Amino acid sequence: METRWLYHTSETFPSLVEEAKGVCVIPMGCVEKHGLHLPLGADIMEASAIVYEASKLETACVFPDFTFGDYCNAAPGQPAGTITLPLETETLLLEQLCEQISRNGCKKILICNAHGGNKVWLSTFLRKLANKKRDFVCAVCTLPFSSTHKILAEQLLEKGSGAVPELSAEDEAYLLDFYNQGKTAGHACISETALIMAIAPEAVHLDRLGIESGLSAHKTDYLNDVGIQIVNGGWDINYPNSYEGHDPVDCNERIGRAALRVAAEKLARAIKVYKEDENVLKWHQEMQKGW
User: Fold this and answer.
1) Considering only CA atoms, which of 69, 257, 54, 46 is closest in space to residue 146?
2) Which of 174, 197, 212, 222 lies most in the core, judged by the most C-beta atoms within 10 Å?
3) Bridge partners for 86 per DSSP
4) 169: Cβ–Cβ under 8 A, 6 or more apart, which residues?
């Protein structure tokens, strides 16, 4: 069945809601710099692709992309192409979209997030939803946008060569070396590079690696060491190039296809649990008593 909301007609849409058992998933990302080698829209491109592939494995209604997630630094000097909206705007838009999703019959909403900067905001958003009577429940699932290389390496270590059919022997050696050396991976890292190489290879520019560093400047370590937290945990200060990771110089589309598959499989398992769960709506209704 076609799972994407926008591809249905008003006549066929109710059948999607029924097949999805009232579960709607929202791909979420943001628009920000991802080093010099990945596109500004990497997060939402990853979220959109992973969610769609997962919905083929476990049917869920796929809502249109929530592209403009939280990027908290609105300073004029932010990298070209960055989009940052007021927190109030993001919150109101997401809240009202959830209400529309519910109005159309989906009472279980799962926000599938592929941007680390959304995590704090989404936690607050869930709290806000709980403080007003509603007929739907909302949850968040963080996609493995920065850890698929670890999943693949651990499969190879556990099951041996050939465990990941998309990979060549050279790919296996590269992933295991990256993993065993404990190389850094975070933002615009090996995992994100792999995913975008599978989704939109024309948007990846490996020749731009090596120009800007993806390693921490450690400028805020002295604050973190004594338990002081500043905005974004000091990430923008420690990673001024909007890039966190060792250069993924040998990344390729084969690794990307494997990364996309394992990410989709992981999300499909989460969707299945959410669909079959009989508690979340019940708990929600119990907490709503008295409103």
Assistant:
1) 46
2) 197
3) none
4) 161
